[in-house]
Amino acid sequence: AGKPAIRIDLKPHAGAATYAGAKYWVDPAPKLGMEMEFRDQGGKPVRRVIYTFGQDLKIDGHDQAFVKATKIVSATSPDSFCDVTYDKPKIVQTSAAEFDITSLHAKTAP
Prior knowledge:
Layout: E1 6-10, E2 21-27, E3 32-39, E4 45-59, E5 62-74, E6 81-85, H1 101-108
Antiparallel strand pairs: 1-2, 2-3, 3-4, 4-5, 5-6
């Protein structure tokens, strides 16, 4: 049995990319990402990332659903996967300099 979801199709902006695109499924009620499927240059699934929510964080006095576990699965070898469970997440205030998306792009550019 499936679950209602919104699917968002993603494609790289330009140039060479590790993946030719991805499909991202969002649970429409809480608007949380449930799963992401990365595709190769031929459009075939390569890797799936499945998000499980099961804990809340208090952010600015409000409860926010947060990921409890992530499962990364090879689409070509489903027995090849990595499970990661997150316990007791800690909110840390950061400066704009610590997470600068422009700097991140420069570090990852070919």
